[in-house]
Automatic annotation (TrEMBL), chain A:
CDD domains: SQR_TypeB_2_TM. The gene is sdhC. It comes from the Bacteria. Gene3D superfamilies: Fumarate reductase/succinate dehydrogenase, transmembrane subunit. Signal peptide: none annotated. InterPro entries: Cytochrome_b-558 (IPR011138), SQR/QFR_C/D (IPR034804). This is Succinate dehydrogenase. The chain crosses the membrane at residues 21-44, 64-87, 112-130, 150-171, 203-223. GO terms for cellular component: membrane. The keyword Membrane applies. Keywords: Membrane, Transmembrane, Transmembrane helix.
TrEMBL record, chain B:
It comes from Roseibacillus persicicus. SUPFAM superfamilies: 2Fe-2S ferredoxin-like, alpha-helical ferredoxin. This is Succinate dehydrogenase. GO terms for biological process: aerobic respiration; respiratory electron transport chain. GO terms for molecular function: 2 iron, 2 sulfur cluster binding; electron transfer activity. Its cofactor is [2Fe-2S] cluster; [3Fe-4S] cluster. It comes from the Bacteria. Belongs to the succinate dehydrogenase/fumarate reductase iron-sulfur protein family. Residues 150-180 form the 4Fe-4S ferredoxin-type domain.
Amino acid sequence: MTALTQSVRSLWDSSIGKKTVVAVTGLVFIGFLVAHLIGNLLVFVGEEAFNHYAEWLHGLGHGAAVWVARLVLLGSLVLHVVATVSLTRQNRAARIAYAHEDTLRASKSSKIMIWSGLTVLAFIIFHILHFTVRTDAQLAKIAAESPYQMVIVGFQNWLVVIFYAISMTLLCSHLSHGFSSAFQTLGFSSSKTRSLLDKLGKAYSLLILVGFLSIPISIRIFGYGS
Amino acid sequence: MNLTLKVWRQAGPDAQGHIETYPANDIPASASFLEMLDIVNEGLIAKGEEPIHFDHDCREGICGMCSLNINGVPHSKEKAVTTCQVHMRHFKDGETIWIEPFRANAFPVLKDLVVDRSSFDRIIAAGGYIDVRTGSAPDANSVPIGKNIADEAFEAAACIGCGACVAACKNASAMLFVAAKAGHLNQLPQGKPEKDKRTLAMVRAMDDEGFGNCTNQYECEAACPKEISADNIAKLNRDYLAASAKEALV
């Protein structure tokens, strides 16, 4: 057991090991986002369908499934953030700045990963307080009656919609580099698949952006649900 | 050609460095970049000033000794060349050129544009070799090796260890160098038996030297004078994870 613990420790301490943690936890979120989006888009089917979905989700596995998912997501989030912050610190310590710096290929999204990531982290905290914990008593009361109405009322606030839009745009940027990057880190990328994974990542991140933005925009700008 | 040079000057490893401006006048367009620096240095020596120190050896693009970050990019923005193979005809008359040493904490500046790249030697010493004598080159086809494997190993072996990958990376990561050196030996019958041991040792030596972590931006691949593919990095990641799992469980 000591040898195993030591191996896990040395893997975590190594650059590739820590990056693997980032890649695996990133893939957990890539999968979660698709499921979350499909569920959310039911808002366009109607109040009954959305509320029925919410009820079904919370009753799955006698209510245990949603908590298992929450624990996996929380654990993944903590590991993803701790590893990336630690890697970023090491990266900054490893480099001395050039007086005149230029790049040949690096994408814009790859250059702002830590900032897009930290903004998304702030959004996740806000989003959970807003729609899961429901710190707003009025919204909590509405949610108890109808989760569908909670979404409609929740997106009436312009500040919420603007913060949501900024966060989704940065999430799209984060994913457009993170998607193919995860496969490269895990060693699944090759000369035959790299360009395909890159295109797939860009298509996926665009889908996530358009999908998630369609809800607050329809509600706040086009008056959907009112 | 008349040019303005912005050159990093640093008297020694512990001295404070700074950018110094020099005119480079009457430079022939046919001169190589290093010959241009030779001309500027002759002028400095004639004036009794300290010449600009820089690394160079073969000047044929094969030894990996020349370095220099030219206008923000290692070995200049010319594709697949070393600094010694960059020619002045690629610059415009009147242009300002920034010349800096390869930057990384693991490549400390010794003087001006000369950096200490012995951290690469220590990574090689950790596992970039084959333990047993394998004799001289075997007769052709006596050891069957698939064409694709031979090609991939040969492409990885083209690495001249210049350090451009580290200098180009915003994290000063040495992954492309280590991936090329480990990948070259790991695929061939002579190197395969020590694949796991080599991979673990070289990656750990790389981390110990204080290089940064790869963030998959592929600047290394774009700057590499030998066009080593970042696919080697994916392969190293895979090999390292497999070797770590075997070390932990077997």
